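Changelog note: in this version the structure field was regenerated for every chain. One regenerated record is shown below for reference.
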Amino acid sequence: MNIFDKEIDRSNTDSLKWDKYKGRDIIPMWVADSDFETAAEIIVALQQRVAHGVFGYGVEPTPGVLLAIQNHLQAQYGWRIDQDWIVQLPSLVRGLSLSTQMVEEGSEVIIPGTVYPPFRFVTENNKRNAIRVPMRLLQPDSDQENALERWVLDFDALENAITAKTRLLLLCNPHNPAGTVYTRDELLRLHQICKEHDLMVCSDEIHCDLILDENKSHIPFATLDSDAASRTITLMAASKTFNIAGLGFGFAIISNAKTRARFKTLEQQTLPDINVLAQVATEAAFNYAENWRLQQLEYLRANRDYLMQKINALDGLKMYLPEATFLAWIDVSALQLDDPEAFFEKAGVGISPGKNFGDERFIRLNFACRRALLEKAVERIEKAVLKN
């Protein structure tokens, strides 16, 4: 049996994903955590640390996790970083929030018009003005065989939105929820705009190790050149890839010493200590769980392709192929639903409504689950759509 086909009962495990529908026959496919048991190497490392029996304050971050991060970035992206550039975080949402605090109150922060909801929350909560730049559906070039439509930032709209008050761009790459992996040419154009207008960049790259399209590669924004590196705060974590989000550990990579010092000052004022077990899990993930990650990518690709075929065979639904992540972005506007979330919950499938991401025409569906459960969810969706 494929390890990712293993059925795991997540009820009564304090699961945000599953407890939302406790006592109801609804398959949860909303929040972005997977149903997969994490890599055995991570479990063993945690068990060994737990066996020690003492869980006092730890070194933050540990020498082991620093080296693991450093080696991982070199192996995956050819990115050579100094360990001093790494700043630990309890979550990447905190990293987004701290990045917005790096610019003065009342200044403008550019965010994608359709994006993970905390991009908007952190700007509003920190009294910065969010300027939402639309995503545009990019049509493939005629000479690109088998190429599909892709959602990308509208670069012209981005440039037109910048004013004298604009200080920061929050980038999401790979993009959540559209699953886009930005190409080098796209990133270079984005960097040129940021350079011309002297914008700081916070690049949320939490899904960077979940590239599904075998013809695409993740390129960290900060690796474009020395100028991009100097203006960028890169946010990463092992949490989405290895399903360890509940442990609470991420990191920022900041090569600019002045920027890093300001970021760390803000961090020390507002953030709690990092969970010692979270660092153990991250170190083990990056050091020992690469084979597990590659097997998971194969499984997710198969789930994605199955879902794509099934959804696009239904009148009224349109799924855009995610190049990365385990999240499907599905246009349901043709169904003319008053409340898409309630409609699919009534059908027995829990989804994230597109309005939370900035586009009420869509829903987001998490396909990081065993195939049998995905097939059951698809059957329910088919039945509900055909009856609509």
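Spot check on this record: The chain has a mean pLDDT of 96. Residues 231 and 259 are 8 Å apart (CA to CA).
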